[in-house]
Amino acid sequence: MTPAARVEAAVALLDEIIEAAAGGGAAADTLIQRYFKTRRYAGSKDRRAVRDLVYGVIRALGERPANGRAAMIGYARAQAPELLALFGTDARGPAALVEGEPEAAPGSAPKWLTAKFAAEYADAGGLLAALAGRAPLDLRANRLKTTREAVLPQIPGAVPTPHAPDGIRLAESVNVEDLPVYNDGRVEVQDEGSQLIAAACRARPGMVVIDLCAGAGGKTLALAADMASSGRLVACDTDRQRLSRLGPRAGRAGAVIETRLLDGGREEQVLADLIGTADVVLIDAPCSGTGTWRRNPEARWRLTPQRIARLTALQAHLIDIGVRLLRPGGRLVYAVCSLLPEEGRLQADAAAQRHPELIPDAGGAQILRPDREETDGFFIAGYEKPC
Fold first, then answer.
1. What is the pLDDT of residues 58-70, one digit of tens each?
2. Residues comprising the binding site for S-adenosyl-L-methionine?
3. Based on the structure, what is the number of domains in the chain?
4. Do strands 278-284 and 366-368 pair parallel, antiparallel, or not at all (unpaired)?
5. Where is the active site (predicted)?
């Protein structure tokens, strides 16, 4: 592909991503994979160049653009003026620029979200800039099979993460799927912040532990390592497809995990035999994902106030279920990969009002930030249920 053809491919992909963001369609990664499956002429260098350009444009624009061409022009004028010279130079590239045509404005987030961050954080500008950056790739050494010290020398360029005791940070060029330590289950892909959520649960061998929103099971597998596969670990989710991916991962990791599919609205019936039995309940609740914008930058374009309202209602519902699952002396951990106050601080305050019997952790809630802890953005609150 010529340089101009790469720009045109990026514009076409941006059109698809913008449309999907407006209508709740597939994620950018999925759309990029589909695009190149039908374009075998694009080599690996072309695919990487187009992908990098697409994500560069997305990261640079806070508001959802009108279309891919406006997005590309706005990005080029702000950050890559050399791209403007490619317009109108190649039949396979973008058409020539027209005076006065629309262009997207640079920014870190939609204005209504920027206002929320500014109201909550004195240093919101630095935080939003960090969320617009690129995330590192982190692994977790699986203590069911190895230690961090044992696997570090086997991964080129790998270094320990600064906070999580089993965390490993990779050099950008490493392909995880080519690593023997990944294929035999000695390491798992997991952001360091996610590892710290699992650590906050304080799961130990012999406990009854329930991961109420397990998804594909990254945190569940970390809990299994903390439990040394001793006790009872139950992974729950409403998404059958996501939950089905946990079985193969658990097998590779050497973990013993029960799974339960939660039928929406019938959670308590499905979990009736577990009420009052859990030593630990983890609620890594569905959320806006504002803390993961480094990995999913187009997620900024998908959010609406209405969606956040639906999510906060669901989060409160899950906390209420989690409290009922706890035994006396049990521990509940509520976490979201969000930095919005209504999903974090305000949600925790509301939970404390509904359940005054819960005792918050002495140190208070944790907020993890990419500009400070170098993790994805998370809110983590722990509680103990009195005996």
1. 999 999 999 999 9
2. 237, 263, 284
3. 2
4. unpaired
5. 337
